[in-house]
Amino acid sequence: MLLRLGGAKGSAPGEFRNPIDYDFDPENNIWVCDSQTSLITVFDNKGTVLRTVRVAVSPMRIKVITRDRFLLMLSGAAQLFGVFDTTGREVYSFGTFIEDQIKNDIVLDGWLARVGREGFVYAPLYAGMFTSFSFRGELWSYAEAITPQPLPKLVVTVEGGTYVDPKAPIVHRDVCTIADTTFILSRFGLPNDKESILDAYSVREGTYLYSIRIPKKVRSAVVTPHWVYTLADTSITIWKREC
User: Fold this and answer.
1) Residue 231, beta-bridge partner list
2) Please, which residues have CB within 8 angstroms of residue 28's CB and are 6 or more apart in sequence?
3) Could you give the CA distance from residue 84 to residue 64 in angstroms, rounded to a whole number?
4) pTM for the predicted model, two decimal places
């Protein structure tokens, strides 16, 4: 082990309650967002806490834009994405996908992948679509995936809480980008499937390009120009790319 961050449960600098995502800035500092404390903690590459930023929202995903601005995917907000400065102030927000989004945004949980330093791709877990934006909030593309699936139903509990229908299939398992190509890890939702699919799309146009078949079920994947790295329940596998 080279480095361990956190380790203690709490809300003091360097402690976590639910660290849900992380990213790196141009100096290779590590930015970690905690959905329970609403704290963004910045570590250097030796594990020293450089700063903490408290935001007035519940963060779900993070992408660092510059050393003093970052993007969060939000829970319980009218817009899905917000850009913040290092005082915790929201500079602007964007991303409305459904009606009454503040109440129902749980169905929009998903993955983000950086497109250089200019923008990002968003692929929801449950819906057969994806979008790409600049970090300024400009919509680059909105496209239906080749594995179409409507948003799932929400189940309301007696106490008034909500959760996603447990029978709803997860359409997108992971997303990554290389240059102007997005790779979305998808499954066709059949219980007996013994393979996973990486569908390639154009970032800017949203057009489908081709698919890479992985001959086993995997939970996440990273694509490089020559290799595909996949994570399954008990193993990491490296595959040689054929396309």
Assistant:
1) 220, 236
2) 45
3) 10
4) 0.90
* pLDDT tens readout for residues 129-177: 999 999 999 999 999 988 778 888 888 877 777 888 888 888 899 999 9
CB atoms within 10 A of CB 180: 13
Instruction: Give the separation between CA 208 and CA 69, rounded to whole angstroms.
Output: 32
> For residue 71, what are its two tokens?
């993007």
Residue at token pair 């699936």: 149
CB 35 within 8 A of CB 59: yes
Distance in angstroms (rounded) separating the CA atoms of residues 87 and 69: 9
Cβ partners under 8 Å of residue 166, min gap 6: 155
- Distance from C-alpha of 83 to C-alpha of 27, rounded to nearest angstrom: 20
CA 200 to chain centre: 17
Residue 237 structure tokens: 């596998």
Q: First vs last Cα of the chain: how many Å apart? A: 34
Whether residue 239 is predicted with pLDDT greater than 60 in this model: the reply is: yes
User: 113 and 176 in contact (C-beta within 8 Å)?
Assistant: yes
Residue 56 and residue 37: Cα distance in Å, rounded? Answer: 10
Evaluate whether 53 touches 86 at the Cβ level (below 8 Å): yes
Smallest CA-to-CA distance from 22 within 4, 34, 7 is with 34
**Position 243: which residue type?**
C
- The string of DSSP letters for 137-165 reads S-EEEEEE-SS--PPPPEEEPTTS-EEE-
